[in-house]
Amino acid sequence: MRILAVSVAPLFPDRVTGGSQRILSDVADALAEAGHTVRVLCSSSSGGGSGFETPNGASIEPSLELRGAFPAPYQTAPHRLQSAWQRLSEGASWAGRAYLHADAVYMRSALGDLPIVRSLHDFVYEEALLSAFTLPAARTIVPSQYLKDCIVASAGRVADQSEIIVIPNGVAVPQKPVEPRLPAGLRPLKDVDLVLLHPHRLHREKGIEQSMLIAAEVQRRLPERNVRLLVPALRRDGSPDDAALADGSVLELAESTGAEKLLELHSWLDMGQMPGYYSAGHVTLCPGSFVEAFGLVPLESVAAGTPAVCAMAGAFREQQGVEGIRHFDYGDISAATDAVIEAVSQPYDAEQAARGVTGRYDIGRMRAAYVEAVTGALPPGAGADTRRTSPVAEATSWRLAPWCYLDRDRIYHDYLAGFENFPLLAAMLRESGTRAAFTADRTSHGFNLEFDRARKHGFIVPA
User: Fold this and answer.
1) Is the pTM here over 0.85, yes or no?
2) Distance between CA atoms of 133 and 120, rounded to whole angstroms?
3) Which end of the chain is more exposed for a tag (fewer CB within 10 A), N or C?
4) Structural domain ending residue among the three candidates 375, 410, 425
5) 143: how many CB neighbours lie within 10 A of its CB?
């Protein structure tokens, strides 16, 4: 089969700009390995550039003249948009099926009647939300049950959502212990060092401020250790993310959080450097409020032998029970610090933890599942641009929203990045089960107030 894969974000032969782009490289290569002819059209901020091939021969063509940066990849000159439309149209004439990775392909008309399989890898950015709510596809692939539940509870109520398939992201586990390797320019490791890693984009929502607060608190509690907080700075040869903080802003933030002596900025790392980097750390921090649709970082860290400490945000909650990963309520710096100290002071079987990651997130299983989902038979009529009336207005039963979780009398909301108190509603949710449907008994004035507030702000959704 001839498959046209499309990504509005760029692909590079030796580095990635986010977890979803690493997944795309694997998917394209797996499709080629299975005998399909694959062309991947991706953006190139310079309006072109030399392409490359994956190991099994998928052709990566950086020919879409989009910005290649988030947010607003389409914010460019009209003639460049016209060029991108033409490239897509030419590719559609060649292909037998389209795969839209992290779908943000608004130019559906350029694809004609080509059957479309798409994937969504977040439910935060405008591009993903517009795709889920407004753009047709015959099949939708998501990396977690969490993301599927979010789509069904919102976009699935107002637009056609044929076949949503969950394929967890795969994690490559090194075949042998990884030698610790710090980035170039950093001083060598000493026995007294306690190295905390923050291997994320420099977004506030990714938890850079929380990582600094945690590092400072760990240093206060363990004065005999030399805490080092390692943070990658984006490359200066063209940032793919306009929302990231500049290095100067990070330094100012470090000073305000008391972590200025602990922070060590270093260059953005290539894929091949990441296992050694993870192995050089004592704990990997994932303390942000960003609504993760999967969360590769803690799993990659555990696979390389280093435990991780994560906020209970988004799909990170699905990783509860994974050996080597500890969780805490977002914003609770004291609890996060407790988790870090436990991680470095308690016995840890790194090899066993890595085997657990392989068992749950095998990369070979992911590749095979994508090949089947992208190339397999599509149901008749799937992908038609149809709509149905939202049932929200006439709903008679409700349940806790999938982007929320219950903690005693509080409910955490991923999109509000915080807790609110609902003592009466929380009691009902505990009684009925947090994911079970309930019918509101609106006889109590206090309950009515809580229920209306919860419904208005999305803490509950129609069952």
Assistant:
1) yes
2) 12
3) N
4) 375
5) 28
Q: For residue 44, what pLDDT is reported?
A: 82
**255 vs 171: CA distance, rounded Å:** 35
215 and 345 in a single domain? The answer is yes
Nearest Cα to Cα of residue 54 among 71, 23, 84, 29? 29
Identify whether residues 208 and 349 lie together within a single domain. Answer: yes
d(Cα 296, Cα 142) in Å, to the nearest integer?
14
**Residue 264 three-state SS:** strand
Nearest-CA neighbor of 330 among 309, 310, 308, 311? 311
Tell whether 340 and 370 lie within a shared domain: no
Residue-wise DSSP of 405-430 = EEETTEEEETTTTEEEE-HHHHHHHH
Quick check: is 114 in a domain? yes
Assign residue 185 a region: left if phi > 0, alpha if psi is -120 to 50, beta otherwise? left
- And the tokens for 341? 């100290």
Total domains present in the chain: 3
pLDDT tier for residue 47 given thresholds of 50, 70 and 90: very low
Q: Is residue 380 part of a domain?
A: no
Asked whether residue 300 falls in the same domain as residue 417, the answer is no
Q: Identify whether residues 408 and 340 lie together within a single domain.
A: no
CA gap 349, 399 in Å, rounded: 39
Separation of alpha carbons 270 and 281, rounded Å: 17
Hey, is 302 helix, strand or coil?
helix
pLDDT for position 292: 95
Q: Does 123 map to a domain? A: yes
SS3 265: strand
Cα 219 to Cα 208, 287, 305: the distances in Å are 17, 17, 23
* Residue 415, token pair as written in the block: 């999109």
Whether residue 421 lies inside any domain: the answer is: yes
Report the length, in residues, of the chain.
463
Domain that holds residue 265: 193-360
CA 77, 81, 86, 88: dihedral to nearest 10 degrees? 150
Q: What's the token pair of residue 216?
A: 């400072």
